[in-house]
């Protein structure tokens, strides 16, 4: 009798097995890649800014952990392949990533490389630009297959300009470097000055002549140069440095001829993120990153994290792993994502730039966050930062 009951139960379980398996939803896999293009360049002036082996990748790893925290309840699994390349091998690596079936690629590269990769990807993949800041990428050279997670030069310049005008420091001495990327940043500061009513009393160019920068002799040379370089300037409130190449700006604070503060590429610096940020839940974010990477976070890490969180948020909200569905949702007016910045982050439909507050930082803390309260906008105060819809030069092709 007892053996008969056991046999009956075993038979029922065997019959129910296939039915239960059919009811169990299949795990959705959402795959992405992080492509970091490492170009040869001079070491930074400060050893604190030396690149680290996991720069950008550490932020991506934290994003995958965050995505999986929700994903395990939604039957979704997230993955991010980490790929390093040089400017010469980046195209081949992108083709390999796409051939592997990955259609979301976070790109950590300079502007020219990012643009070339976007053209190469075409409609085969969506790129998430997590480093390049050039305004041309959001303007005349915009591409429909690219979302810009990194803030633009215009956003950074506008964020700083709003604060300087709130401080009633409208007269600027603009000092720019001699490289093309420095000119792009300087152009953003000129535009910001005109936009918010500041005045550039004079503009000077610091020529990069090469040579030692961080040796003792280089330090002594620059220490002697900076007071002379900045003397006999018209009266100004603050020196604004446009030094995207990291050639001279860190030497400016306390070495100007006149006793004036420094902002821009040194002193008070506009950033997407800062390792001392604590507000809006950022403390637990910082702690989790530092536990994972055993170092403070950098902007590349935050921007790579945010890029993959955009993909993860779209997958969670749509309950889909289909790349076309995720892309459509990310670019819709229904999408938003949290970024530990006090408000939801969204994507501008006219240039695919991620709207976000900008932190104004010193070496050890966040001084302020822009947009400043007195700057209003009919749609979003975040659109007071960067190129607004009526000003854009971006034209996406019509979708058939």
TrEMBL record:
This protein is called what? Leucine-binding protein domain-containing protein
Matching Pfam families? Peripla_BP_6
Arranged from A to Z, the UniProt key words for this protein are: Amino-acid transport, Signal, Transport
Q: Does the keyword Nuclease apply?
A: no
- Signal peptide range in chain numbering: 1-21
NCBIfam families reported in the protein's UniProt record: PQQ_ABC_bind
Task: Read off the SUPFAM superfamilies from this record.
Answer: Periplasmic binding protein-like I
Please, which domain of life does this record's source organism belong to? Bacteria
């Amino acid at each position: 009798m007892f053996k008969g009951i056991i046999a009956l139960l075993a038979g029922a379980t065997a019959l129910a097995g296939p039915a239960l398996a059919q009811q169990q939803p299949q795990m959705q896999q959402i795959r992405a890649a992080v492509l970091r293009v490492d170009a040869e360049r001079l070491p930074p002036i400060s050893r604190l800014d030396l690149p680290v082996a996991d720069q950008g990748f550490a932020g991506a790893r934290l994003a995958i952990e965050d995505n999986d925290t929700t994903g395990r309840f939604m039957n979704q699994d997230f993955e991010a392949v980490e790929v390093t390349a040089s400017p010469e091998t980046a195209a081949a690596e992108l083709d390999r990533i796409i051939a592997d079936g990955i259609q979301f690629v976070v790109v950590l590269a300079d502007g020219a490389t990012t643009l070339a990769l976007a053209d190469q990807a075409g409609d085969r993949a969506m790129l998430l630009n997590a480093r390049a800041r050039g305004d041309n990428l959001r303007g005349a050279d915009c591409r429909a297959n690219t979302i810009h997670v990194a803030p633009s030069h215009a956003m950074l310049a506008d964020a700083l300009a709003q604060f300087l005008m709130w401080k009633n420091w409208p007269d600027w001495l603009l000092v720019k470097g001699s490289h093309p990327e420095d000119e792009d940043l300087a152009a953003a500061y000129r535009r910001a000055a005109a936009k918010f009513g500041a005045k550039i009393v004079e503009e000077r160019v610091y020529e990069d002549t090469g040579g030692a920068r961080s040796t003792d002799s280089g330090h002594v040379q620059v220490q002697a140069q900076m007071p002379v370089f900045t003397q006999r300037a018209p009266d100004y409130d603050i020196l604004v440095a446009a030094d995207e190449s990291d050639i001279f700006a860190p030497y400016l604070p306390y070495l100007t001829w006149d006793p004036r503060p420094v902002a821009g590429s040194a002193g008070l610096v506009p950033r997407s993120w800062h390792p001392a940020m604590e507000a809006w839940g950022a403390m637990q974010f910082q702690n989790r990153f530092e536990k994972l990477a055993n170092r403070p976070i950098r902007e590349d890490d935050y921007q790579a994290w945010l890029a993959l969180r955009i993909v993860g948020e779209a997958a969670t909200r749509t309950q889909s792993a289909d790349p076309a569905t995720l892309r459509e949702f990310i670019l819709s007016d229904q999408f938003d994502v949290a970024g530990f910045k006090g408000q939801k982050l969204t994507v501008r439909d006219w240039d695919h730039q991620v709207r976000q507050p900008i932190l104004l930082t010193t070496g050890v803390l966040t001084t302020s966050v822009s947009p400043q309260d007195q700057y209003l906008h009919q749609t979003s105060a975040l659109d007071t930062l960067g190129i607004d819809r009526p000003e854009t030069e971006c034209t996406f092709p019509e979708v058939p």
